[in-house]
Give the backbone structure.
Amino acid sequence: MKRMRLQWVQAYRQAPWRKQAQWMGLVLVGLISLVLVASIYLTVSGQTAAEYVRVTSMQRQIEQLEMSIADQQSQLADLTSSGRMEERAAALGYEQADPLETTYVSIPGYTGRTAQIDRVPVSLVEEDTPVLRPSYTESLWDVLFVELLQVDTQTGLQP
């Protein structure tokens, strides 16, 4: 029996070169997997870095535009300041009105300027529609009570 078992093991035992080939195959599969994972990692890292550079440049552009807008707003404020406006009015020949020399004329039937409202702010508009439907605000007892009242009125029973 022992001899038969030994012959059976020897018959199915692989040659040493086959074992080496299997090990080499496993090592190569591991290396290929490692190279694939590394290449995917490098690709994703490169794309991430490129997007970071793009976002950073866009943020710089946003900051430059905001600074330009702030500069233009300050220039506009300077141009429309009361001192500058007085200078421009004097250059055009306008003079400061003297309250003692000013004549006010009343016109019968003229009520003055009326305020014109283009639209009502959303916060001032009251909504008549409820937020929840009434069926969601009723309790089970309310529903049962209404149903019992309907049954009583249909049957003619008095409570």
The helical segments are 2-12, 16-79, 82-91, 134-137, 140-155.
